Amino acid sequence: MTAGVQALAERVRSRTVRVSDSIRATLDTITRHDKGLNAVTRVLSTRALQSAAAQDAFLEAGGTPGPLAGVPFGVKDLFDLEGITTTAGSAALANTPPATQDALAITRLIRAGAIPVATLNMDEFAYGFVTENAHYGRTANPHDTARLAGGSSGGSAASVAAGLLPFSLGSDTNGSIRVPASLCGVWGLRPTYGRLPLDGVYPFAASLDTIGPFARSAADLHLVFAALATDTPQTAPPTESHTGTLRVARLGGWFAKNLDPDLEQGITRLMEHCGTRQVINLPEVERARAAAFLITAAEGGNLHLPRLRNNAQAYDPATRDRLLAGALLPAGPVIQAHRFRSWFREAIHGIFRDYDILIAPATPGPAPLHANPILTLDGRPVPARANLGLFTQPISLAGVPVLSAPLPCQSRHTNTPTPDMPLGIQLIAAPGQEERLLSLGIKLEKAGLLGRPAAQWP
């Protein structure tokens, strides 16, 4: 298993480990242990080793190491990497020209000292919540390979959860970071809409798309976000001075139904720790979820329509049909969805005049089985791939930052067949308050209320 972000960077800075040796070890770990996981689509061995050698030479010459010095990472396969074709998980892009430069987010991480070593599996064109890819195969959950990893950034979450990589990059339109982070038991951040650059990232629905990192601890996630959020790398890890006395409330109604009993207990413990019983019921949540569906389908469908007209057979049929359906949506309902989004966004932003943090579940419970991908909602079985975003999709409309955090390992109830599978929550804050969220995550992890160990993989 690879070391965490902070631990590895500190070893490199202290010169107790050479970057080249660390990168070789990571590449070897991926080669030996990804076969049963299928999180990785390409290994960037030549580039990674050349970057490691250059960094070793720089450090040996007395250069100042960056905050992510020598830390390997992987990227969801929709980020541009110079010299490589960006496939976005689809054979439809296999013959497009290679990228001429790295995505800006990757450039920022490299400036901080990090080294990209792999591209990671995803749902085709980021349209899904399960990472079952017709071209690259299914990514398994490292806690139980018979279960879903979640998506669409499933490879990003699973590779970190399994200890193949210290951190990774994913994207989140309607929950594609938060859902797999929850199901795989890692930390993930959907930043404020527009906070991180999308230059060189293949789009899905431009008015909702965000990018963000995964890591195994809140402190590691904090350090990576600090590098992503600026063109000038920080020389020291972020502090925990952004919390103070926080006004915390739980989202009720829609967000309090159909919860796994251990998930409910975990949220209750967080509320007790924060000294509050305050519950907020957001207005029109079901309509918000429907609006997110409509906007995503329409924008995604129209983005792909020219290629679908000429090369529809290159798409996974399930993805193709959803994109075509979105492209055929009449303008009226889509316009109404955008108008509703403006109203809903203002409603949520208004809540942050009285509260600093909102707590909600990330998914209703643990990862469903691959062979029986079903959730039970209101007493009836429904398809998991269409409903794993039940609690993430409405929040996406508001454009606010959301931290997906794993609950600690717990003894499961005897009537559930999912012993010790991860459960996750969302911590939600006002726009621009990522530092507050991450600092709170660090404190709650230290208090034993959030966080869990990596999967025992393989």
Describe this structure in words.
- The protein has 458 residues and is α+β, with helices and mostly antiparallel strands.
- The protein folds into 2 domains: 5-228, Amidase signature (AS) domain (Amidase signature (AS) enzymes, Alpha-Beta Complex), CATH 3.90.1300.10; 248-288 and 331-446, Alpha-Beta Complex (Amidase signature (AS) enzymes).
- It contains 14 helices and 17 strands.
- The strands form 4 sheets. It has an 11-stranded mixed sheet, sandwiched between helices.
- Helix 8 (261-273) links the parallel strand 11 (248-251) and strand 12 (279-280).
- Helix 2 (19-33) runs antiparallel to helix 3, helix 7 (218-228) runs antiparallel to helix 14 (434-446) and helix 9 crosses helix 11.
- Residues 22-438 form the Amidase domain.
- InterPro entries: Amidase, Amidase_dom, AS_sf, Carboxybiuret_hydro_AtzE.
- It comes from Acetobacter suratthaniensis.
- Pfam families: Amidase.
